[in-house]
Design brief:
The chain is an all-alpha fold. It has ten helices and no strands. Helix 6 runs antiparallel to helix 7. The longest helix is centred in the N-terminal third of the chain and has 30 residues. It starts with a helix and ends with a helix.
């Protein structure tokens, strides 16, 4: 039980640590550093989607032969579609832009920035929740160690994300503490989402392969829709490519070694 609680909270702690950079740095992150960190986060999420979610999804129904890919394919597309719907309906504002997305709403800039981050972090929480649900329910190809690896990998990529959120908040005129709190709160949705998925998974074990792939699809949507465009635009895009490679390999190694 203690391992479960710690596993659910590790990603939030990563976000809080990254948000705390606002107390240690006077200036915001340079564009080069941001590109490298966004690429790193993309690599971690893609590797986690493949090794920790899609492959276990197919392994769970391996006795189905060629049809073992069906739950992974359906769940993946459902995850992509779910995030697309959330993206279209939720009013939000991405960092570095002044053009809100989603349904029109009379919300402050800070509130819409926070909603954008919430959309981003939701699938990460879902991924953590579904792998822990598999481990807790004795799924043979999902160990507790591999679930902790997913949680740890997402926490590592949450560190730069927390900094990317809190530093612009400070640059926009917010106090250091306010910027830290906003950055930290952006990660609260992850343990909440993970817990909700775990509670549902205990009643829906037959569809766990679909849920694993669903989380993968939701994470890949975030990578393609938000992280890669932000990381590859403008000069020095090769830094995001290097960051992606480092993040991908790190998450792959964590999953294989700890799994």
């Amino acid at each position: 039980m203690e391992t479960l609680i710690i596993g659910l909270l590790i990603p939030l702690l990563g976000t809080m640590l990254g948000s705390a950079f606002v107390f240690m740095m006077k200036d915001g992150l340079s564009p080069r550093v941001q590109k490298a960190l966004l690429g790193f986060a993309s690599g971690v999420m893609v590797a986690a989607s493949v090794w920790s979610l899609l492959i276990p999804s197919m392994d769970m129904v391996a006795d189905s032969g060629k049809w073992a890919v069906f739950p992974a394919a359906v769940g993946f597309l459902m995850g992509m579609g779910f995030l697309l719907m959330i993206d279209c309906l939720t009013p939000h504002l991405h960092l570095g832009t002044d053009r809100p997305e989603g349904l029109p709403a009379h919300l402050s800039r800070t509130a819409m920035l926070a909603l954008a981050v919430t959309i981003h972090n939701l699938p990460e929480g879902m991924a953590v929740g579904v792998v822990f649900a598999g481990a807790e329910n004795g799924i043979s190809n999902i160990s507790l160690a591999s679930a902790v690896a997913v949680s740890l990998g997402i926490a590592i990529q949450n560190i730069p994300e927390g900094a990317i959120i809190s530093m612009p908040m400070r640059a926009a005129g917010n106090s250091r503490w306010r910027s830290f709190v906003i950055g930290s709160l952006s990660g609260v949705v992850e343990p909440i989402g993970a817990l909700c998925v775990m509670l549902l998974a205990s009643f829906l074990m037959p569809v766990l392969p679909y849920m694993l792939a669903f989380a993968a699809g939701a994470m890949i949507y975030v990578v393609i829709e938000e992280l890669i465009p932000e990381a590859s635009g403008g000069p020095h895009s090769n830094l995001s490519t290097i960051g992606f490679a480092v993040g991908f390999v790190l998450m792959m190694v964590l999953d294989v070694v700890m799994g």
